[in-house]
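Let's study a protein:

===
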Amino acid sequence: MAPLRYYTDILLPFILLLISGVVFLCRRNGLPINWPFLGMTPEILLNIHHIHNFATNFLKLSNGTFLLKGPKFANIDMLFTSDPANIHYILSKNFPNYPKGPDFRRIFDILGNGIFNSDHELWELHRKTTTMSSLFKHPNFHTILETTIKNKINKGLLPVLDHYHVTDLQEIFQRFTFDAICVLLLDYDPESLSVDLPFVPCEKAFTDAEEALLLRHFLPEKVWKLQKRFGLGKEKKLSEAWKAFDEFIYKCLSQKEKEDEESAGLLMSLKSGFSGQIGTSCDSKHFLRDVILNLMLAGRDTTSTTLSWFFYLLAQNPNVENKIRKEIQNKTGGRNWKSLTIKDFEGLIYLHGGLCEALRLYPPVALEHKAPTKADVLPTGHVVDKETRIILSFYSMGRMEGLWGDDCMVFKPERWFSKGVNGIGIKHEPSYKFPAFHAGPRTCLGKEMGMVQMKMVAAAIVCNYRVELVEGHMVCPSDSIILQMKYGLKVRVVPITTINQSG
């Protein structure tokens, strides 16, 4: 026994010293440690609460592309990339080889056969029908959009901000965009944005669903399916969100069926556009539910998230807020901001630049999941096959000095100015450098609609209030597929009239 104890006393410190040396060497380069059998899972679990910044750090240290290794037995290795050449190649140049794929459809099963979950012929049907024959080509679309947003601002947003001097602005924006997209798609206003701030299960369900969907990316499929089966953790909230979506959407659809079928609204236009199309016949009502849920997700969360980060950045940069306010005043010539038309908003260069900066630093869709259908070599030289899970980190791209300069972390609307013979205009960056609205054939259909809505809301608030952060309130990204704020955006809303009187 004595010799065994003797060797143990010698070997144990040696083994610990060896492990410490490996950890030190790995830590020195800043990259995650690839442990035997476990891969980089310990690091992932330790950093899951700030996964986007975690990914940005290791991408900066690896020239923009890094293989994050999972456990040997789990098959969840993920190739992260923020390299523009890879982004352009995957989303545009070799687009057919990089569909959403079966893994994506399993993770995002709640979206059914909607546009975000579709590939090939079904995706082409969605794209064609939504843009060409139904929604965005509706003869009254822009009029309906402008009227809906102005009504919601006047009857919902401004009364609420007048009532609550301290509020969670992120929640206000989420309620605003939820009501607006419901009016546009379903011709129904749930009035979640009203002074009493009522609880609407469907409106709150989006946040719960999006947090669970992000976690599915980093858990073995068998684990989250087991949680789903027994109603555990985030999967329980996802199931409850699914039920809330179904109850809300089916109720609205049933109500519209009882009304005039000849209605010329956007819902009827959307319904007639998909009617009889190949691939939609399995259950027309269920398919319409999928279409609407996908559009609601796009309409509620991307817009509200961008507005939240925009006003967070404005609150930290009051000089920019003042410049935007002055730009709007010059545009209106002293008239009320309500006199601005959609065309007028196109000329608000500083406001446009500020929103683009918010989108660059905090893209609402922070990452995208891709899977090649056959083996390929990326422009960076990385070899991928049909088993490779590729994660495009749009969040990280906005924080790369090589793309945006040494001041990439600075909120700088002037970054989006271009000087020409006719004066200062808007600078356009290629989508593979600035993928806030995605890139290639899957570029966001509602890009222009989203920008118009954000400019109208921003103008209404900037012209009426000064937004100040509540002292001590922590603002950081949430653990979600949509880059919301984990603890909301607690602000103090000060009317401009009060500022002028005190000044």
In short: The radius of gyration is 25 Å.
